[in-house]
Amino acid sequence: MEVILQNLTKKFPGRDRRKKKDIIAVSDFSFRIPDGKLIGLLGPSGCGKSTTLNLISGLVKPTAGRIFFGEDDVTDLPPEHRGIGLVFQNYALYPHLTVMQNILFPLQNLKGRDRLTKAEMAEKAREAAGLVQIEELLDRKPGELSGGQQQRVAIARALVKRPKVLLLDEPLSNLDARLRLQTREEIRRIQRETGITTIFVTHDQEEAMSISDMIVVMKEGIVQQIGRPQEVYDNPANLFVARFLGTPPVNVFDGKIRDGRLYIGAEAVLEGLEVFADPMPEEVCVAVRPEGFRLRENGVLSCELSGVEVMGRDISVVSRNKFSLNPQIRSIISTENQPDFESHVVRFDLIPRKVFVFRRDTEERIG
Ligand code: ATP
């Protein structure tokens, strides 16, 4: 099912009524979500991710804008008539019911032509349990399950009515690191198997990047960028997006542009720079991905070596530079190319496609 968001806006009344200042949780959000895709809604706490999901589910009414599921305008429909499956961070299972009864629950109140016989309900519940591989747990109560198993039950319950759209709000945040990894792969597999359009909220960029067909990066209610994860990583629209994606994070420097050359301090670090700005600002921010550094004896950027962390296949070289806006510069280098540990200075060349240039004032990308 295609989901179309048209100029969606949600304002909440501000806490200080006298000032009459609304909180704009979501601002003028338009996006045509393609059928059958997994979309990751991503951003820091308070950026409006959950509100966007709640607008799509119908739990929250928009202040302005419309929502379509395919051809149908669902903006004024209550959640139960939208054909959605919802999964929350805290699973929201009924503790006194068995796993089977929890999964059956959404089928029990179907009315009219949608009503099912007991046998039909049981079959659908078993099918949903099979999808998330919990058939052997059907007689247990939620209290007798691990966090990961409870999350699977919540997903089975959301899938049992074969929703048109599956909405997941931080579904992995109560799981430990290993289970998170496993469960996110699981969500991807289930989504591929069912082909249900799925929208997934997370503040964890790695999680969103690893399983989404497309990501939406939000900040303060405003969509910053939409695209395929690799596309957004390789072409961030602004400094916020560049900083938000990637571990270790991008390294940011104060830079200058003069005669088509990019400088960090007195060192010209890139020649023949393509910058899209008119007039061209002189002072800029330069961001370099950790994998954008090459150790070279005569490299263009000199930094003070402060440490090396071995990470198996690669090493992380930690260094400092007066013009760096991060307290430390982190570069990822292959183990074959170790720095000279005796020396206090390391020199790098920069890989042009891993270097981004931003305006200092608006933080917009210009090169
Ligand atoms: P988190 O990751 O912390 O859940 P989020 O990105 O999901 O954050 P939202 O929960 O959508 O963000 O909140 C966006 C903004 O709207 C925040 O400033 C929040 O305080 C505000 N907000 C959300 N719900 C309400 C509400 N019911 N009443 C008033 N303000 C609200």
UniProtKB/TrEMBL annotation:
PROSITE patterns documented for this protein: ABC_TRANSPORTER_1 (PS00211), ABC_TRANSPORTER_2 (PS50893)
Enzyme class, spelled out: hydrolase
UniProt GO molecular function: ABC-type transporter activity; ATP binding; ATP hydrolysis activity
Keyword Nucleotide-binding: yes
Keywords carried by this UniProt record: ATP-binding, Hydrolase, Nucleotide-binding, Transport
Domain ABC transporter span(s) in chain numbering: 3-245
Domain of life of the source: Bacteria
GO cellular component: ATP-binding cassette (ABC) transporter complex, substrate-binding subunit-containing
UniProt-listed Enzyme Commission number(s): 3.6.3.-
Protein name stated in the entry: Trehalose import ATP-binding protein SugC
